[in-house]
Amino acid sequence: MHVTIPSALLCAAVSLQASGGKTSPTTTTEHIRGTIQSVDREALTVATSAGSVRVRLSPSTAVTRVVRSDRAQITDGSFLGITSVTDPDGSQRAVEVHVFPEAMRGAGEGSYGWDWPGDSRHSTMTNGTAVASRMTNGTVAAQASGSSLTIEYKSDAGGGSQTITIPPGIPVVALEPGQSGDLQPGVHVFVVATRSSEGVLTADRVVAGKDGAVPPM
Can you tell me the distance from the alpha carbon of 6 to that of 83, in angstroms, rounded to the nearest whole number? Predict the structure, then answer.
């Protein structure tokens, strides 16, 4: 699946390190989700739910690896990215959690609209520091009804916080530096790409799953 998003969300929405520089008014930014069909030095071809998409690679394209993790890594003080949806009562319910390495603390910090495929109209991405709400020994407890935590974040408006329920069984992944060798046919990817006015897609960042992991963003 690939979805067009406003270019202003490039650095924030990717939930990773800022790509540097501002997107030109003549370009748009897109999220591409799928599996690599083929790869060469110049481009990836990604199989998405809407068909094959060719994405150009450039020397500045960054690669980040996604590895499976677990709730034990969701601790008080850790820097997290959480995709959530709004329940009927207005509360936020997580659909995935990704744990940043310390070196990426502050990446994409804030809370903003997202394009999660399961509910693109009511989904939110929140990147910030976890503050214990209901935890056991500093870790989010695996309770049958789910646990909750508060994410505090800084923003241009001065910052804020969001309390999010963490249901059992949702994907939890960790992010780590990747390399071009991680981009192989069959690998699940999440790509942040810029489309030029001529229609050419160029990858700003590729998030690649390791050992069959699917980037849940």
Answer: 18
